[in-house]
Amino acid sequence: MFMLVICPECKGELSEHANTCPSCGIPSYKIKESIDRQITDKKKQHEELAEQKRIEKGLASLQNGFKCAVCDEKVGLEIEVCLNCKFSTQKSYVVAKSNVMAKPVSNQDYISYNWSGNYCPKCNIDMGAWDDCFDCDPPPKGSEHIWHKWKLEKPAREALESKLDGELRLEKERLERNKFRLAVVVFAMVILVTIIVKLF
Predict the structure, then answer these.
(1) Which end of the chain is more exposed for a tag (fewer CB within 10 A), N or C?
(2) What is the C-alpha separation between 167 and 100, in angstroms, rounded?
């Protein structure tokens, strides 16, 4: 597969692998820098388009349900709280949405991030990015699925809750503004239709 690029001399199209421009005959080595820049720009556009499609697909999938941010049970916005752990589904939606919007970590980045040499002083297991060891620091009974969250300091938990509350409040304000705008439009249309009916 090849990519068409624009000749900077005559503005004609040529293949990225062409030796000369078919329109003006200028050798490709003389316009190599321009060709490289165009190839880079087009690849970036393709990547941005693919990322946009990934985000749109991910956000659409959230309408069919998403994981609870605390217990990983599947929930939906049709219920207010998770039936398993009673955590707010709207807060879980904010978390799921931010996960969709986040750029995926490549395998190389994941390896370099995870295998950090952060070894547990008790059992010498690499803990990766975690502050606690999965093997020798067991969670409280019944909290196995969320143990690492409960190990956060209280200020960190409060900061997390505050952040989620703030994002949730902004989302509600945005929905309220949209409802108000819709109501104004509908009201204006009703008045307009009434005036037209009276005139005719």
Answers:
(1) N
(2) 15
Q: Are 73 and 83 in contact (CB under 8 A)?
A: yes
DSSP 14: E
Q: Residue for token digits 């690492």?
A: 148
Helix (H) or strand (E) holding 37: helix 32-61
C-alpha distance from residue 89 to each of 18, 67, 80, 122, 173 (Å): 56, 9, 6, 38, 18
Collapsing DSSP to helix, strand or coil, 75 comes out as strand
With 0-12 / 13-18 / 19 or more C-beta atoms within 10 angstroms meaning exposed / middle / buried, residue 82 is: buried
pTM score above 0.85: no
CB within 8 Å of 129: residues ≥ 6 apart: 113, 114, 116, 118
User: Of 100, 131, 98, 129, which is closest to residue 116 (Cα–Cα)?
Assistant: 129
**CA 187 to each of CA 3, 101, 174, 196: distance values in angstroms, whole numbers, following the listed order:** 53, 36, 20, 14
Q: What is the pLDDT of residues 59-106, one digit of tens each?
A: 888 889 998 887 888 898 888 888 888 888 888 888 888 888 877 655
